[in-house]
Amino acid sequence: MRDQLLGCEFDISPTAFYQTNPQQTELLYQLAIDGMDLHQGDVLMDAYCGSGTIGLCAAKDAQNKGIGIMLLGVERNPAGIADARRNAELNGLTRSAWFMADDATDYILDAADNNERVDVLSIDPPRAGSTPEFLEAACALKPRRITYISCNPVTQERDLHQLLDGGYRLLKITPVDMFPHTDHTETVAVLERR
Question: What pLDDT, on the 0 to 100 scale, is given for residue 184?
Answer without folding.
Answer: 81
